[in-house]
Specification:
The protein has helices at about 15-20, 60-65, 75-80, 85-90, 95-110, 155, 170-185, 190-195, 200-205, 220-225, 255-265, 280-295, 300-315, 325-340, 350, 365-385, 395-405, 410-425, 495-500, 510-515; strands at about 5, 115-120, 125-130, 140, 145-150, 245, 255, 435-440, 450, 455, 470, 480-485. It is an alpha+beta fold and about 525 residues long. It has a domain at about 5-65 and about 115-150 and about 395-415 and about 435-510: Beta-clip-like (Beta Complex), CATH 2.170.270.10. α13 (about 300-315) crosses α14 (about 325-340). The protein is globular and about 65 Å long. The structure holds S-adenosylmethionine.
C-alpha cells in the first residue's frame, strides 16, 4: 500500500530567549519548513533503518525493523498456497476503467473539482489540474484513509485518534509530556510505550513526589496541569477541543463525539482493548499491539487497513442487493470493501522496504525473508484477535503558545514568563513536538514527483488536523500535471537520484534532464 509519513509542520522561529539560553537549534531537515511548509513524504516504504553505521547482519537489521523473529504458526508459503487465487485478485492492479471511475467518484464526493486523476503509460497514475491555479492557491485537502500516530510520538503529544487534531488544552499537552518525560528518565523506552494513558493524570497528581532524574518540576504541579487545576497565562488564546474518551478503552481519545463515532465505525470497534471487548479477544489484541510496539508501527496501520476493510465489508453485506450468500458473491463484496486501499496498493511491504544502508546487498534476500516472517507473525496475532470474533501533518499548538508568550510586550512577557519559563525549560529543546504518524492519503498518493515541482504539501495555520494539504507553488494551467517533490530537491543531481532510488525510479524531470552529467 502507498503510505506517507506525516508530521506536523515545525516552525523554526524559536522562542528567542530559549535559543539564547540553550544555544541549541531545533533541526529542520528541509529548508521549506522554514516558511511553515511541510513536506508530506509520499510512499516510501517504512521500516528500513535511517541509521548509517557499520554493516549489520540482516537479522540484526530486521530485528531493529522488527524486534525479533517471533515464531509463527503457519509459514507465509502455506497461506500463499491456500489462498493463492484470492490473494492474486486482491493484490492485482485494478483495471483502468474501474480505477478511473473510482477516482472520479472520490473527487466528486469530496468536491475537489479542481483536479482529476489521469492514467498514463509513462508514470501510471498522476494528478492533473482541471482548472487554473494561482500561486499559493489551495489545490487539495486530502483526507486520511487509514493512519496512525507513531507509538513513541503519543508520549510527546495528545491528538484525536481519528483526525489527529491536538486536544485538551495547552496545560494538558505540557503537563502530560513532562509527566511522560519524568517517567521516561526513570524507565526505558519500551516501558514508556506501554504506559497507560490513564496513568498520566492519576499518578502525577496523587503521588506528590518528584521522581529521581525527572524534570525539575514537582509531580503535583504536572498533575494540576493535566487535571486543569492549574492554568498558564494566555492559554485562552489557544483553546483546544475537549478530550472525548473512547467508549471502551482508555487508549484512544478524540476531539469530538463525531470523530469518536467515526473511528469506532471505521476501524476501532475491532481493535478496542477496553471493557466492552470480550476478555480473550482483548488479550489477543494486547499481544498484537505489544508486538507492533516492540517491532514496527506499520503493523498498527496495517491493522487499521484490515479492520477498515472488514467493517466496510460487514456494512455492505447488510444492504439488500448483497444478501446473496455464495462464496463468490462474498468474495466480490470483499473486493469492493478493499477497493479504496487496493487503488493505492503497489507492492508487499517486505518487497518494497528500502534496504537499510547498513545491510549488504548480498544479504537482501535474507533481510526480506525476515521482515516477511515478522509481518506474518503480526498478521497471525491480529487474526487471533479479530477473526475469531468476526498515512500525516499537524502542528503543535504548544509551539504557537510559547511563541505568543515570547512576542508579548516586555512587561507582560516578563510577568507571564515567571510562570511559563520553568515549563519551557523542563520541556527542553524539542519543546513543541509535532504529531507524527503514518497514513495513506488516497489522492495525494497519486501525485508524481518532480525536482522542480509546481505544488507542495503545506500546512497553513488553519490546517490543524491530519489531512494532507497541497498548495500551488506557481501558477498552474488547466491540464498541467500537478507534481510535488518527494525529497529535498535543493541538493545535487546525484544526491536526488540516490534518494529517489528508494522510491524505485530514475527522475527524468526537466531539471534532471538539464543537470544530468553527460
Ligand atoms: C506516490 S506514487 C505516484 C502515483 C503513481 N504514478 C501511481 O501510479 O500510483 C509514487 C510512484 O510513482 C512513480 N513515479 C512518481 N514520480 C515519478 C517520476 N518523476 N518518474 C518516474 N516514476 C515516478 C514511481 O513508481 C513512484 O514509486
Amino acid at each position: 500500500m502507498a503510505v506517507s509519513v506525516f508530521n506536523t509542520r515545525r516552525r523554526t522561529s524559536l522562542v528567542s530567549a530559549f535559543m539564547a539560553r540553550t544555544r541549541m537549534f531545533i533541526s529542520t531537515p528541509l529548508p521549506q519548513v522554514r516558511d511553515k511548509v511541510s513536506r508530506t513524504k509520499p510512499p516510501k516504504p517504512h521500516g528500513g533503518g535511517g541509521e548509517r553505521r557499520r554493516k549489520k547482519q540482516p537479522q540484526e537489521a530486521a530485528a531493529r525493523a522488527g524486534g525479533g523473529m517471533g515464531g509463527s504458526s503457519a509459514s507465509p508459503c502455506d497461506l500463499d498456497r491456500e489462498f493463492a487465487p484470492q490473494i492474486a485478485q486482491l493484490l492485482a492492479t485494478p483495471p483502468l476503467q474501474p480505477a478511473q471511475e473510482y477516482y472520479n467518484g472520490l473527487i466528486q464526493s469530496r468536491k475537489h473539482d479542481g483536479i482529476r486523476v489521469n492514467f498514463s503509460s509513462k508514470h501510471g497514475k498522476g494528478v492533473c489540474a482541471n482548472k487554473e491555479f494561482a500561486e499559493g492557491d489551495l489545490i487539495l485537502k486530502d483526507q486520511i484513509l487509514v493512519g496512525a500516530q507513531h507509538s513513541l510520538n503519543k508520549i510527546d503529544c495528545a491528538v484525536c485518534s481519528y483526525c489527529f487534531r491536538f486536544i485538551g488544552s495547552i496545560e494538558f499537552q505540557i503537563g502530560r509530556r513532562l509527566y511522560w518525560q519524568s517517567v521516561g528518565s526513570s524507565s526505558d523506552c519500551t516501558n514508556r510505550r506501554h504506559c497507560h494513558e490513564s496513568d498520566v493524570g492519576s499518578s502525577a497528581s496523587s503521588s506528590g513526589a518528584t521522581k529521581e532524574n525527572s524534570s525539575t518540576l514537582p509531580e503535583e504541579v504536572l498533575g494540576s496541569l493535566i487535571t486543569g487545576d492549574m492554568s498558564l497565562p494566555f492559554t485562552d488564546h489557544f483553546s483546544l477541543p475537549q478530550v472525548v474518551p473512547c467508549r471502551g478503552c482508555e487508549e484512544e481519545r478524540y476531539c469530538s463525539q463525531s470523530c469518536a463515532d467515526s473511528d469506532w465505525e471505521t476501524y476501532h470497534s475491532l481493535l478496542c482493548t477496553g471493557s466492552k471487548t470480550e476478555p480473550s479477544q482483548r488479550s489477543a489484541l494486547q499481544k498484537f499491539i505489544e508486538h507492533a510496539n516492540g517491532s514496527n508501527d506499520i503493523f498498527l496501520v496495517a491493522a487499521k487497513a484490515i479492520t477498515f476493510t472488514l467493517l466496510r465489508y460487514k456494512k455492505l453485506k447488510t444492504q439488500p442487493e448483497f444478501q446473496n450468500n455464495t462464496d463468490e458473491s462474498n468474495f466480490s463484496l470483499l473486493m469492493e470493501a478493499w477497493k479504496p486501499l487496493s487503488m493505492g496498493y503497489k507492492k508487499r511491504w517486505w518487497d518494497s522496504v528500502a534496504l537499510p544502508e547498513d545491510v549488504d546487498s548480498c544479504d537482501e534476500d535474507t533481510f526480506r525473508q525476515q521482515i516477511r516472517d515478522l509481518a506474518l507473525t503480526s498478521l497471525q496475532l491480529l487474526k487471533d484477535a479479530i477473526f475469531d470474533s468476526d498515512g500525516l501533518v499537524v502542528a503543535s499548538p504548544v509551539e504557537d503558545y510559547f511563541i505568543h508568550i515570547d512576542d508579548l510586550p516586555d512587561d507582560e512577557k516578563e510577568e507571564a514568563e515567571k510562570v511559563t519559563r520553568p515549563f519551557l525549560d523542563a520541556l527542553g529543546e524539542d519543546y513543541a513536538a509535532p504529531c507524527e504518524g503514518t497514513a495513506f492519503f488516497p489522492l495525494q498518493s497519486c501525485m508524481n514527483h518532480s525536482c522542480c515541482p509546481n505544488a507542495k504539501a503545506y500546512k497553513r495555520d488553519e490546517d490543524t488536523d491530519g489531512n494532507a494539504v497541497i498548495i500551488a507553488l506557481e501558477p498552474i494551467k488547466k491540464d498541467d500535471e500537478i507534481t510535488i517533490s518527494y525529497i529535498d530537491e535543493d541538493v545535487s543531481y546525484e544526491e536526488r537520484q540516490a534518494e529517489l532510488a528508494d522510491y524505485g525510479f530514475i527522475c527524468t524531470c526537466p531539471r534532471c534532464q538539464e543537470e544530468k552529467p553527460n
